[in-house]
Amino acid sequence: MVTISNSVADTHEAAEKILTNLKKGDVVFLNGDLGVGKTEMVKGFVKALGGSVDDVQSPTYLSALIYLIPDSFVVHVDFYKYKKNKSFLQAFIMEYLEQDPYLIFVEWGSDISDGFVAINIDEFNGERRISLQDER
Of the residues 39, 44, 48, 74, which has the fewest C-beta atoms closer than 10 A? Predict the structure, then answer.
């Protein structure tokens, strides 16, 4: 599944479409260069799940944020500072999984994304290509 995004609205729409392929408890890795729209994808997911887009921000400085959605919550993690320590990253994810979130979104975790769901966002000539890679 590849979707082209030329706007924030397109990115949110892509997230809504991808959501139909996800299930409660999935860990979803968001891969792409700085500024390509990873956090904007999370906004789209939170919106589609009935949460507030206004709550969603980049977790870069806090490492993890939690957003409430009806009857559950979503975890949004940024592993940029920790990407060289795979065992820490895996333990971090397991700790959040024990809290029974609806979904966990991980930015900058491509080194440990094998065997999980990954969303790859690439930019070519001002156009963003959003693709789903499901290795569950």
Answer: 48
Q: In CATH, what number is assigned to the domain containing residue 129? A: 3.40.50.300
Mode of pairing for the β-strands spanning 64-69 and 117-124: unpaired
Residues belonging to the chain: 136
Query: One digit per residue, pLDDT tens: the chain, 136 residues?
Result: 789 999 999 999 999 999 999 999 999 999 999 999 999 999 999 999 999 999 999 888 777 899 999 999 999 998 887 766 778 778 888 888 999 999 999 998 877 777 789 999 999 888 899 999 887 7
pTM: 0.90
User: Which strands form 117-124's sheet, in the order they lie side by side?
Assistant: 2-5, 127-134, 117-124, 26-31, 103-107, 72-78, 64-69
Domain that holds residue 62: 2-134
Give the span between the Cα atoms of 57 and 60, in whole angstroms. 9
CA distances from 37 to 23, 42, 92, 121 (A): 22, 9, 23, 7
